[in-house]
Amino acid sequence: MSLRNITFKEAIKEALACSMSKDKRVFLMGCGVTSPDGIFGTTSGFLKKFGDGRILETPIAENGMTGVAIGAALTGMYPVIIFQRIDFALLAMDQIINHAAKWHYMLGGRKSIPLTIRGIVGRGWGQGAQHSQSLQALFAHIPGLKIVMPGSPYDAKGLLISSIEDKNPVIFIEHRSLYDLSGLVPSGYYKIALGEARVVKKGKDVTIVALSAMVREAQRAALTLKKEDKLDVEIIDPRCLKPLDEGLILESVRKTGRLIVADTGWKTCGFGSEVSALVADSGFKYLKSPIRRIGLPEAPTPTSIYLERIYYPGADEIIQAARELVYGKNKINSCNRRLLMKRRSYDNRFKGPF
Amino acid sequence: MSVQTLKDLLFAMLKIRRVEEAIVRLYPAQEMKCPVHLCIGQEAIPAGLCKSLNTEDLVFCSHRSHGYYVARGGDLKAFISELYGKLNGCSQGKGGSQHFSAPEVGILGSSAIVAGTIPIAVGTALSSLMQGKNIVTVVDFGDGATDEGVFYESLNFAALRKLPVVFICENNSYATHAHQSSRQAKDNIFQKARVFGVAGMRINGNDVQEVFKSCSKAVHSARKGQGPVLIECMTYRWMGHVGVNYDYRLGYRTKKELTEGMKNCPIKALKEVLFRKRILKKSDLLKMSEKIDSEIQEAVSFAKISPAPHYTELLRDVYRT
What we know:
Chain A is α/β, with parallel strands linked by helices.
């Protein structure tokens, strides 16, 4: 199996093709799966390759179609339902939460739902309030669901294959801003176990638990912190919110004594809060400083490019937090929102329109 | 219709009725600690429908599911134990009355979310088509479910793909306490299928022979690949929406309306036909009742001495490992 440099979206596409070629019970459904764009390129050409019996264009009926996927999963199939925007999955919350998540339990374990739900988080080019929500915490609240959120092409492929083969409903969340990220990915079939975090970078001064698109931001922050502050941070990518690899996070905090959690979602009741609570509960004695959460401010996503720039936290905020934790808040200049408006960010590369 | 079929239909209805009546009798002891939605007065629909199915066909139910479990031949001991929250229940006490299932007889689940199982049934129909299996799925729901958007989403997709699914609407006029006329602009549920190109019919849901014939026809045509069918079965709920009491005192319907509705008893109607045709003797009926009652008694005794779930059950089965 050769390693090649491919993008995140190519990795997703390879995972789907791998799973479908390996197992005839796997099929794809969703709005746009047969469109020429093919869900941002992740399903393009599949209609020709696998046929309309396995690539199902669906009506714009999210709840009903999710129910259909559940029924198929209940009777021997391995459906993957795709929401081009995870915001659209909100219309299917009844089937996801009331049905998919509970069926195995309510039936006393006699039937399971091997269902994968792909949801894509938008960002940039004015996607606005209803096309860019990062809803992982909402799903992670629910027992019975597994939540996966890869941060690299390698993880995206291996985790998606595992998600499809899993006997449970899995919410697989892809951040659109990672779609063009390149990385080394094996050409063939491989799996990454759900619930195993990854040490992205070893370090000793601060633990940064970074999720999805925040992994890249943490890596950028690490370079600056090394160069300008001589700080050696450790980056942990949990890869799954549920099941969560608590051990690896606690082990890292035991070593560094400091924790930053960088999430792509809102801070309130978010993934950052969950990891903070975990460390406060089980790793309090290791902490040399308070915990910092990096997350979205308490507002819907603005459309204006000017506001969008300050809406999304990134490497700057992580750098700021790390400095505060190590040197104390008063020793450094605080991050200036007005300066942040000038920063070069993801939106400079993303040309839209969708 | 053969004599045996008629007797089977009567037996099934009688068994459902006696099971529900046993629950009415036992419920006040406060040992069955779960909400129950009884189907007394509506027995002809599960009895007639289930008789029209093959053993491998699939059934999905709503919260009012007891009739289907019984008519399909689900294990009565596991049924009663489930109501008692015991380990020997069909879901080890994790489902209760609102989530009855019996995969061994093709009942893959019931939902307490109105219309919740309708799209899932469409999904199993899709799955059977994809796998080249000759299985028909039927889904039962109340008139209230046709208020829901997902009902229309499901009808559309089933029609689009010509799926082998039969939609059974038990129109008992009430969703909880709200009459259909207070919720729907028109009293035409069966016609709602037609705009999707789905065959829709309205039948007397308290005439078990009519239910059996209509369902057999619908199931047959679905199996032949002629697409879904919606059957609106007109019926009447005798008991309250939930619980084991008559509820006219609440004031949303009158005692007179209830009394009128109860005159149209599906079991009484079939019994009269069978007596008139001399197919059934009083002694046959007595034998039937005795057989049913002893099975119920056995199930109740079994359930009562069944062990409670161990505390480790709480976190088991959240995920399939």
